[in-house]
Amino acid sequence: MEVAGIYSTSEAKSMKRASGKRKIRTSQSKYNRKEERCAYLCLIPAFLGITFISYLPTIAVFVLSLFSYNGLSSPEFVGLDNYIRIFTKDVYFASAVKATLLYAFLAVIGAVIYSLVIALILNMDIFGRTIFRSIFFIPYLLPAIGVFKGWQWLYEQNYGLFNFIFRMLGIPPQRFLDSPRQVIPALVLIAVWASGNLIVIFLAGLQNVPTVYKEAAQIDGANSWQRFWNITIPCIKPIIFYNVLTALITHLQVVNPALALTNGGPAKKSMFLSYVIYMYGFEKNKLGYAAAFSVIFFVLVGIFTIVLFVTQKDSIFSDEA
User: Fold this and answer.
1) Which of 19, 158, 267, 275 is most solvent-facing, going by the fewest CB within 10 Å?
2) Which residues are CB-contacts of 258 (< 8 A; sequence separation ≥ 6)?
């Protein structure tokens, strides 16, 4: 009887412990459900905001591209006529695609190389490093219109600073913004100068490169270039990819230089896609036609983004990386 009593007591204790665990799990699950509901409630304002600010306007652009609409009269459904006209009859489309791609290509390469070089210098133990970091980041924070007006004075043919220096050196003055051959490089230089955000991101990535790798390579006799190419570059590959991606998307959407400096000229060499969309939508009131241009531009940016992801997938997102 005593043995039976002992077993019954232990079974009762185990049942109490199991019951207690079930209560704890039940209370935890209730708490988790309440926390989940609270999280969903907190996300509702953000979801509504992004829906009304981004998703619905994007859908509206796709729909509007199928209509002929000037903002005053009733929209007239034209189907794919806007797209057919863009690809077959539009006088700006080919020039806009060429100008946009050339500008984006040069600006991305120039901005990434420039930002990486400056970040490498600022990552060294140099005097006044904090001040120089601020100096190189400030151009990114300046208002765009102020930046372009300042560069307009620098590029001015008669009284600009650059041509003043050229005259002192015996070089003929250059027509930077008025020359079909020079306008894109001149605008790219402004974009490269204002890429302070890329410098900050590169600098953060460089500071996270493990110093133990560099020290081991230095002990093994690797020079500065070998340490940079075989250690630094592989460690900051995700940073390089991010900066290339953001710079590509940003510079494909270029419009401010054309609005502030060139008005699409000279000879349509700075007639960027975004500027053509602005011109058709707000100067010529062809909102449906401008929407069709926007859809084509959206697809073009998406294609370049997907190509960049696919080509860099193995080196950036692999397990070894």
Assistant:
1) 158
2) 264, 270, 271, 272, 274, 275
- Tell me the three-class secondary structure of the chain, residue by residue: CHHHHHHHHHHHHHHHHHHHHHHHHHHHHHHHHHHHHHHHHHHHHHHHHHHHHHHHHHHHHHHHCCEECCCCCCCEECCCHHHHHHHHCCCCHHHHHHHHHHHHHHHHHHHHHHHHHHHHHHCCCCCCHHHHHHHHHHHHHCCHHHHHHHHHHHHCCCCCHHHHHHHHCCCCCCCCCCCCCCHHHHHHHHHHHCCHHHHHHHHHHHHCCCHHHHHHHHHCCCCHHHHHHHHHHHHCHHHHHHHHHHHHHHHHCCCHHHHHHHCCCCCCCCCCHHHHHHHHHHHCCCHHHHHHHHHHHHHHHHHHHHHHHHHHHHHHHCCCC
Structure confidence by residue, pLDDT tens digits, 226-241: 889 999 998 999 899 9
Q: Is the peptide bond before 210 cis (omega within 30 degrees of 0)?
A: no
> For residue range 46-71, what is the model confidence (pLDDT) as tens digits?
889 899 998 999 999 999 999 999 88
